[in-house]
Amino acid sequence: xxxxxxxxxTNRQIAGTLYISHRTVxxxxxxxxxxxxxxxxxxxxxxxxxxxxxxxxxx
Length: 59
Description:
64% of the residues lie in helices and 0% in strands. The mean pLDDT is 90. The protein is built from 4 helices and no strands. The protein has 59 residues and is mainly alpha-helical. It has a single domain (2-50), classed as Orthogonal Bundle (Arc Repressor Mutant, subunit A).
């Protein structure tokens, strides 16, 4: 989910892709941000990438 947010998708877009509620997406992203100690989606993307939680970028 953090990977989709890192791609710039909104919670509603992520929800549609994963067939879940946009509120569920928000809860998952909030939990990930809390665990990684960040407070924005951009910081989440950076922290997740540094932690090796995102797949490598395609060229």
